[in-house]
């Protein structure tokens, strides 16, 4: 073993992308073992590697961690991205959980039938601009610091940046009405570890292409 975390998932964003983001933001190098066919997933299930018979799964510190939020919480705690005390941690959890619903509908957009995509995108943007983004614009205004919680990077900042960049891929002017979020995006994107992750050739996954959807679906279904 190299000592690096090993990520087990398909070569796509899905529920592993937040893990890639958080490790990258922490400056942690990791390896990936991609599931390429249904048999790869079945092998992990049959050898007892998946506690709940699901990926993502991350091998780290002698453990085989499953459940995305548990994985993210462990990484955040290990690499000091989880606030300085219980109150900060509660805020971080609250913000991340608040974004989880938005993340799910963004993630599922590419898998919608072609005739539903326009309506689905309108629903995503309606929820983003009227429900979620105003919350974080206000948090930044009221908090008055560069970061969402305290005055240092946390998993909440990383999650927010991941979500807004994905939104902008779907609709480039998604942040038009949110000047503080625009500034937040610029600041976060220029942090050295994150800037590196945003460069071509990094472990950051692109939007899934239409032609790749059947292959991914075949692994999981």
- Work out the helix count: 9
Query: What's the structural domain tally?
Result: 2
Binned strand content: 5-15%
- Topology pattern, helix = H, strand = E: EHEHEEHHHHHHH
Secondary-structure-based class equals: alpha+beta
Radius of gyration: 18 Å
Please list the strands of the largest sheet in the order they lie side by side: 2-1-3-4
How many beta strands in the DSSP annotation? Answer: 4
Helix content class: 40-55%
CATH class of the largest domain: Mainly Alpha
What ranges have pLDDT less than 50 throughout 5 or more consecutive residues? none
Q: What is the CATH architecture annotation of the largest domain?
A: Up-down Bundle
At CATH level 3, the topology of the largest domain is: Glutathione S-transferase Yfyf (Class Pi), Chain A, domain 2
Shape, principal axes of CA atoms: globular
The termini sit apart by 31 Å
Q: Sheet with the most strands?
A: 4 strands, mixed
Mean pLDDT: 95
Enzyme class: transferase
InterPro entries: Glutathione-S-Trfase_C-like, Glutathione-S-Trfase_C_sf, Glutathione_S-Trfase, Glutathione_S-Trfase_N, GST_alpha, GST_C, GST_superfamily, Thioredoxin-like_sf
EC number: 2.5.1.18
Domain GST C-terminal: 85-207
Question: Would you give an account of this structure?
Answer:
With 221 residues, the protein is an alpha+beta fold. It folds into two domains: 6-79 and 198-220, Glutaredoxin; 86-190, Up-down Bundle (Glutathione S-transferase Yfyf (Class Pi), Chain A, domain 2). Helix content is 55%, strand content 8%. The protein contains nine helices and four strands; from the N terminus they run βαβαββααααααα. The protein has helices at 17-25, 38-46, 68-78, 86-109, 117-143, 155-170, 179-189, 192-197, 213-220; strands at residues 6-10, 31-35, 57-60, 63-66. It has a four-stranded mixed beta sheet with strand order 2-1-3-4. Helix 1 runs parallel beside helix 3 and helix 4 (86-109) runs antiparallel to helix 5 (117-143).
